[in-house]
Design a protein that fits this description.
The protein has three helices and five strands. The protein is an alpha+beta fold.
């Protein structure tokens, strides 16, 4: 009888270990997917040249176009709607929050060091660029892990 009880207890422990490993793997996948999506978004945003300034020989980023393109890329890559809420049937379940958006343009002296002490992010840009920080929550599968929320940071420079 005690062996049967031990078998059931060990089965519960093994199932909990399986659930923990599955949640950890899915959490890492979600983090990598979010980082990749944000990297693509800021890279696309950094390439939005201000045509009027470029005609005068000044390399500058069109801030409105950059933000629009970045949000579009985030929405496509992370499968979000226009309110940054996950689409029905997708993996993410909570809204993705854009917590910082900065365009560093030609009015700065380069190399320019951008610092955001609130989120612990520092980057040195050699030319005009974009910095973005988003907050992303992991949709737990088995509730073995506690809630996980990441602050994902990325930056890109204009290519010319």
């Amino acid at each position: 009888m005690y062996k049967l009880l031990l078998f059931f207890l060990m089965s519960v422990v093994l199932f909990m270990m399986y659930a923990l490993q599955t949640d950890e793997e899915l959490a890492m996948f979600t983090l990598f997917q979010g980082k990749r999506g944000l990297n693509h978004a800021v890279h696309a945003a950094a390439q939005q040249s201000d045509a009027a300034k470029l005609a005068r020989g000044i390399h500058s980023i069109d801030e409105a176009a950059a933000r629009s393109v970045a949000l579009e890329y985030l929405q496509q890559n992370l499968q979000l709607d226009s309110n940054m809420t996950p689409l029905p049937g997708t993996f993410l379940r909570s809204q993705v929050e854009l917590v910082d958006w900065t365009v560093i343009n030609e009015n700065e002296t380069f190399p320019f060091t951008y610092m955001n002490t609130a989120y612990g992010y520092t980057v040195t840009l050699q030319r005009p660029g974009v910095v973005a920080i988003v907050r992303l929550s992991f949709p737990r599968t088995y509730n073995v892990l506690g809630p996980i929320t990441w602050t994902i940071k990325s930056s890109a420079e204009m290519v010319y």
